[in-house]
Each structure stands twice: as structure tokens, then as C-alpha cells.
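I had to read the description of the data format several times before I understood it. For illustration, here is how one protein appears when written out as sequence plus C-alpha cells:
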Amino acid sequence: MTVIHTFNSSEPNPPFAEMRMSSYNDYCFDCECESISPIDWGTWKRLVGELLADGALLKAYDPVASDEAQKIFGNEDIIRHFSTMIGKGVNRDITALSPLLDASLKTGDRVNATLQPITSKGNTITIRKFAEKPWTITDFLRNNTIDYLSASVIWQALEFEQSMIVTGGTGSGKTSILNVLSNFFPPNNRIVSIEDTRELKLADTLHWVPMQTRLPNPEGKGEVSMLNLLVNSLRMRPDRIVVGEIRREQEIEVLFEAIRTGHSGYATFHANTVPEAVSRLTNAPINLPKISLADLGMMIVQHRDRRSGKRGTFQIAEFDETGNPHILYQRDFTTDQMKKLAESKTLAARICMFSAMTPEKLQADLAEKEKVLRWIVKKNINTVNEIGLVISDYYTDRKKLLARIK
């Protein structure tokens, strides 16, 4: 039995029964895959947004689609040919000697394929399609992925160059919220992003240099790793370094060293809660000294309810001078609302110290940012570049923007 998984990142909080791909224009198979016959591409493009794997069974959300899928993909040779064609399009081979394929397509979508007997029940293809229109803070606020106060607190920390790590489980929206928050950077900052797969999309108003890792060729040459790019980025005079995901000890060490030397650093990391993230970072195999966490201004935790498919911000925490976390906001799942657990001490004091603001001015600044966010949602400003222009106006001529809002 052939197994095909399709996962969609095109909705911030998709109900389980409504997970669909929003657009199929050329989908991701622009590598001459039209030569694969006898596949009906109209049928395939429709099915690919509806299929979901359940164990070793290929299923769809309606019986007709399921039957059509079984007819198209019931033959292992077709899936093997499909995998081969995808691999050729990105200059990667999948063969009996090399039965695993991990590729990024030209559209940015991810594909993983395996061949028998590595997967004993049959050949597999796993496709992760990303949204063609990047999520914005407008989408997140409307869907209650994050609330206005939490978004304002994070925006304030970003404005005053506080470093952050976004954590969460698989599919919880870590990269999505990192992309949303990255558009709050001031337009005069030089931003370098480093990713395995290009997912971030920043506004055109920003001075942004995207970088991407490269896998070695079949001869094992030409690899450019995350660590290579991190080290190189320090020579590019960035104000802010955004890392798609940090996994290894050396990558984390370099990122924190960059933070200590005056760069603002932002990254995603796999952990489900703040205590779990601290435990993973400070114990083997990473072994980051706990005192190093004091260099972070904030940690944001994303959560995904796998029963409903709903995703949202779960926790927001600061760190004291010894590296101990203090959770400031946490989502109450009984009401699905963020609740304030404690007043900020370390983060607020740090911002006040470097900005010459008083605690009263800090609160007024938060109220001002919340007002701007509410206006953005009210006016349905809902593309990365449109929001980028508003944020740019906020930093360059705040009084004029606030006058427009009034």
C-alpha cells in the first residue's frame, strides 16, 4: 500500500475537518512532472489538498476522492517514478542504494520520499506545502492565535532589540509567528536570516539578507551548513540575526555568542513549555550554561491542539540575571485567553535602562502599540508589505501615523 502524507501550513488555526490547500497554481511540481502518466493533474491537484495519511492507509475526506486516490497511487511504480522525477527537478537522486529523499522544491515546499524496503509497507511521499500568502499579525489577531496585549509586549521587546527564542512542538506555528514578528523590525536595521528551507518572508521595507543552507552533492561535496552561515553572518555587520531553527550545540553557542557581542538574535527551538526548553538547552547534548539564558529578553512558546488543529501562543517568559525563567503570560485553555501571571521585572527594567523610559512611559508605549494593532486589523491591512509600510511609518513618523489612526 502506498502512503502519501500531505500537510498544510496555509491556515493559522485550521479546523481538523477543513484542512485544505488554499491554492493549487502549478502546486510544487514544476520539475517536468507533467510527463508522469496516466495521472489526471486536475484530479491530483484537488486530491493533494484533501489527502491525509492514517497509519498505512491512504484516505481522503470524501469517498469519491479516496477511491480516485487509490486508483492513481495504488501502484508502487508510479510513486517511485513520482519520487524520481521530483528528485531530478532538485538535482537529488532516490534509488535502491539511496532510498531516502529530502528536498526543497522551487516553490519552497518540502518533500520527503522513501522507498521499499526501508518503509516495509510501501513507498511514501510526504509533502509539506507552505502558504503562498505569508501569515500576518492581522491573521493571528483575528484567529486568536495571539492577543493584542501579548503582541504589543513582544513588539515592544523587538523594538528595543531584545533577543528571543520561539519554542513549541512540531507544527505548532514556531516559524509562522517568527515570520509575523520579524516584520516589526525597524526599517533601518540590517537583518540576516538563516534557514534550511526558505520559509521567512519579510517586508520589502526592511534591509533583509536571506541565506539558505545547502546539502552536499552526490559526491559529498559543496555542503554549506547552518553553522557555516551563522559564523559568516557575523562578518556581515547585521543588527539582527534570525535563525530558522537551532538544533545543535555549536549552532546555539554561536548564536548566543553573537547575542553577547551586540547582535539581536532570534531562533526557533523544539520544546513544549518554558521549563522544558530550559531543560533541553542546559542539559546534554546541548549543555548551554544556564547563565547564558540571561542574555535572552524573552521566550515565546507556541502550542498546537492536535485534536482540533488549533494553534496559538501558549507562554511568554522573561529571564532573570541567573538565567531562571519567569512566565509573564500563559494561555488558559478553559477560556482560550491569555492571562497575565506576573509583572515584568527583568525585561521592563532592561528596556527602561537602555531607552531612558520610565515604567509609566513603558505602559503608555504598550497602549500605543495596541492601538496601532487594532487599527491594522480594523482596516484589514493584511499583507506583509502593507503591514511593513505601517510599521515603517510608526518608526519614522510616529505622530503622523497616530494622527491617521485617530
